Structures are given as structure tokens and as C-alpha cells.
Amino acid sequence: MRLWTGNLLIFLFIGIFSTLFVITVDEFYEAKSIHEVLDEKIILDSIHLSETSIILDKNKEVISDVYAAEKRIHLPYKEIPKIVVDAFLSAEDQSFFEHKGFDMKGIARALIINLQNDSIEQGGSTVTQQLVRNLYLTHEKSYERKLSELLYAYQMERLMEKEDIMELYINAIYFKNGVYGIEAATRFYFNKTADELSVAEAAFLSAIPNHPDRYNPLTNIEHTHERKEWILLKMLEEEKITKETYDKALNESIELNIYHKIDEYPDYVTYIHHELKELISDNEGYSKRLSTAKNEASRTTILQQLNERVDAVLNQGIIIETALDNDIQEQAVRSINSYIGNSQLQAATTIIDHKKNEIVAITGGKDYEKFHFHRGFQAYRQPGSAIKPLLVFAPYIEETNTNERTTIDASPFNKNGYTPINYGGATYGRVSMEQAFKHSYNTAAVRLFDRTDPEIAFSYFDHFDFQGVDEKDIILPAALGGFTTGVSVLEMTRAYTTFATNGEYHSPKAIRQVLDKNGDILYSWDHASERVWSERTNNEVRKMMRRVVNEGTGRNAKFSTSGYLGGKTGTTNNYHDLWFIGSTDTYTSGIWIGYDSPTSMSHINQRLHLEIWRSYMSKIVH
């Protein structure tokens, strides 16, 4: 009895307060004192509902849904089907377009039900009240929260148009199974768009938000149908549908067609997330801030801010257009997985369309899983002799104006105690540059590097994207790939594209552009190019790379083609790494194989990397 009396008094208080509140507001509207108090005490922050982003391949087909905390696809009010609005208003708030945020009749109706059940079962909430509860308040069942809800709802109605409130409501409500908003719900449960909904389907979906657990179609579909039928009846009573439409909808069979998240090409998509961060960092000044950070603490703070910014961008519902070539990606993955088999070996490759300056495929390792360690761009390994064209031969030719026929000294070399040896301990004398290149003589390479001057040779690296190379590496062993940190497959492949683009470097990318949900460009790369080598130098290196494949250490990478085919091998000490980077008329591709923890591969087929490269490249070159 005490609870009954308390409920009655409190509800009467709310009713009286609400009435007096509206009267007072209207009476003092000219002075706006009440409104000024509301403006001061109730601040409705800008509302940004998170949305699902998507990643597209080169043909603009979806390859990955990027969900934020909430799966949502925002619909503007004008694109929300009228039948959906009618279904929600008939069930939740018939007087929505008349009230000022709360409905006294609804409150009175809830009062009667609560008194009958001797508890707080219903609150008579309008659509506006439900919206502010979801956005600003809690779902606690208390009269203090209810009073706050009334004030917030009134303030929202003051500041926003009815259509804007309804748009927010339809997009914010929860449809169970991680789905928010009518468009995402339609796609999830029926695998179609909201504008394709029938009356019965609209009523069916509108049933879920009232009690998402109870009306979950995946577990309690019979309850969903019960509320659907009740909503259809309310729509009929409110004259939103005719009796004929009601009967048809009541008898319509609802068939679920659950949408499964698109999450393909994990190697490529993982890299896209990395490149997106680089793109945002470059466009919004984070890169510059990081490069000038005074200490590690500052750098950590900037990186945290960058990560938060990337998350915020992804939550906007962006469209990331990429250069992914599905066929090429699949072929590269298939070749690596089939050749490496069940061993502990790993391999990674990058394939670049150097004509379009785009990364069309990149792999992260054998049987790669999304967001795991990506050997295509995160693994830094010693490049061995694969570095010679970039750091030795091209700089030497550029600085000395020599050519592949120039005779050079390949005899034993010693300087300050550094004595490189050739493969198998072989010794040579005077040889042509192309012979030293195609057979990868170490003594010749170090001597050319020394004559060029390591400082000058490394100056050419300023054009490239080698992140782990610094001043500590400017020493003679670098000529044979001896670096402190190492290089990635992606970095090496990018650098080699200069030999396919007349000596110009374009820093190939995978992301073409990033669009907002309206199709406007948010981010794109600056595709400015830099000249690294003269065309003459470039042509000399290309000729020697062709001989590597035809006559030298890369013979096992050769396949039949009417166009250009050339490259360079690389092997590190104790066979810890095997490399090959090569080009055709259209594509430049690099491959690395090895163990994650550097271990000798002397026991395996020393041509394995060449065979894998030939396997996928021969199938994508036409």
C-alpha cells in the first residue's frame, strides 16, 4: 500500500510539474528566463553516431566491413522509408509531431499500468525521451532519471526540428546483435536496403528495439512476430495503412536472410589499416610533429593522438578505395602457401603495378591471419645482395658515367680490417660490370661502393621510404646488405620500381582515395615524383637485371614472356634470408623467405624464392 501511495504521489507530482513547467515556459517566453536556465544547465553536445566504414577493391567491390563499436549505416530523414517512421510512431509515440518532448496522456497511461502492477513498469516515454535516454542518460528505472528525461526532451525539442529528432532516433536505436539504425538492421536481417522493405518487414524490424532481448529474431522470433502483429494493428488504428494492406502484411511470410560481415583478403586489409594511418598522419600534420618530437614521451603522446584520430575517422562511415587486384592477391597467397607447406618457413611478397603506381597485392606470411604480425611491411630483415642495384651499381654509374661494359676490379678487398668474401670463397680479377652484377660478386660491389663514397651512395636513399635506415648504416658492409635494422619487402619493392619508371620514384600506395559517406574526398596521396637516377643509368641497370634472369643467379625466376623480365637476388650470411625483386613491363614484385627467428636455410632448396616468384608472376603477366 505504501509503494502504491508513493507511486501515485510521485506520478501526480510529475504530471503537475510537467503542466506547470510548460505553462511557465510559455508565460515567460518573452523573458526567456526559463530557457536561459535550461541552456545553462542542459547542454546537448554535438551528436556523432558511429557508422560502419568499408574498404573497396580496384573494382569498387566491398572487401571489408570496418565496424566501430556499433554497426550502423546512417540514413538522412528524407531517405528513411515513410512506412518505417509510421511503424515506430504508431507503436511508440502517436502524438510525436504535436507534443513538446513529453506526452501527458502517455504519462497518465503509464501511471495506471504501474499502479496496477505496483511497480515501475512503464514510463510513458515519447520518441524524444527515448532518444535523450539513449544519448545522454541511463536506463535506470527511477523517478529522478525520469524527471531529467523530461527536461532533456523539452530542451531537445526547443533546439531541433521534429524531422531531425526522428532521423536521430531511427539511426540511434538498437536492433540487437550489435546492429544500430534501420539501414544496418535491414541489411543484417534481410540482406537488402531499407527502401526495399515491405510493410510487414518494417513492422517486424520496428518490433525489436522495444525490448531487444525479448524480440531478438535470432533467438525469439515468435515474440518478434507477436509484436509485429501488434504494431500492424496500431498502424491500422492510426490509419497509417488500410485494412487491405493490414491483412496482406499480417499474412506475409517473413524470411530472414542474415548478412555475414565481409572480411576478405586479410593480408591486404591489414596493410590498408596501416597505410590509412600514414595517410591521415601525412595529411593532418602528425608526421611532421612526430619527426620533430623532442623526446620519447612526446612521441608517445602524438602517436596516441594519431590513433584516436584514425579511430574517429573510421567511425564516420568512410569509404576507402584501394588498388587491390583480387586475382593477383589470391595467386600470390596461393603460391606462398603451396610452396612453403607445413614447414616453419615464412614468406612475404609485394606486387606493384608500376605503370599506375599502385600496390595491387601484398602478403603478410603463410596462412596469414588479419592484424597479426605482417611480414610484408613489418618484418625488417637484412637484404643481402638485393640491395646492390640501389646502393652500389646505380649510384656508381650515376656518379662516374660508366656502363655495364666497363671493366671493374673484383679482386680481394680489404679496408680497415673489413674483408668481404665471394660466394664459395671464389676470387676474381678484372671483370665487366655486368658480369659482377649478374653473378653477384661481393668484392666488386664493396669496391664500387667505396669508390662512390658511402655518404654519396646513401644520399640516393633519401628519395625512398626506408624507415629503418639511418646514419649508423653508412659503412662498407651496407654494400652487401649489412644494415642495423634492415628493410621490409614493401620498401625494397617500392624502391625497385624506379628501374621500371625511367629512374623516377613515385612511392607507390595501396589507397587510391578516402571518401566520406556523401562521396566527397577526405584524403588522397600526393603523387609527386622524384628523379633518382638518370634515364641512362636506369637503362644500364635494367640491362644487367635482365641478364641476372637470363644468365645469372636469378635464372630460376625466368618464365616465357614477350616483354621485359629482370631482377636481382639476395642471400644473407648463413642463409638467414633469401630475396628476389624483379620487374616485368607492368609489375614490380619482391619476395622474401626465411624463419621469423633468423635461422640458417642451408638445408632447403636454395631456389625456392625464385620458384615462388615465378609461380605467381607467370600467371599474372599476360
Q: How would you characterize this protein structure?
A:
The structure is a single chain. By secondary structure, the chain is of the alpha+beta class. 44% of the residues lie in helices and 11% in strands. It has 2 domains: 200 residues, Biosynthetic peptidoglycan transglycosylase-like (Penicillin binding protein transpeptidase fold, Orthogonal Bundle), CATH 1.10.3810; 286 residues, Beta-lactamase (3-Layer(aba) Sandwich). Helix 3 crosses helix 10 and helix 15 runs antiparallel to helix 22. Strands 2-1-5-11-12 form a 5-stranded mixed beta sheet, covered by helices on one side. It has a 5-stranded antiparallel beta sheet with strand order 7-6-16-15-14, with helices on both faces. Strands 3-4 form a two-stranded parallel sheet.
Task: Please describe the topology of this protein.
Elements: H1 2-27, H2 33-41, E1 53-56, E2 62-66, E3 71-72, H3 82-92, H4 104-117, H5 127-135, H6 143-159, H7 162-172, E4 179-180, H8 182-190, H9 199-207, H10 221-237, H11 243-251, H12 266-283, H13 286-291, H14 296-314, E5 319-322, H15 326-340, E6 346-353, E7 358-362, H16 388-400, E8 407-409, E9 430-432, H17 433-438, H18 442-452, H19 454-459, H20 489-496, E10 504-505, E11 511-515, E12 521-523, E13 530-531, H21 535-550, E14 566-571, E15 577-583, E16 587-594, H22 608-620
Parallel strand pairs: 1-5, 3-4
Antiparallel strand pairs: 1-2, 5-11, 6-7, 6-16, 8-9, 10-13, 11-12, 14-15, 15-16
Question: Which features does this protein show?
Answer:
alpha+beta, single chain, 22 helices, Penicillin binding protein transpeptidase fold, Beta-lactamase, 622 residues, 5-stranded antiparallel sheet, 16 strands, elongated
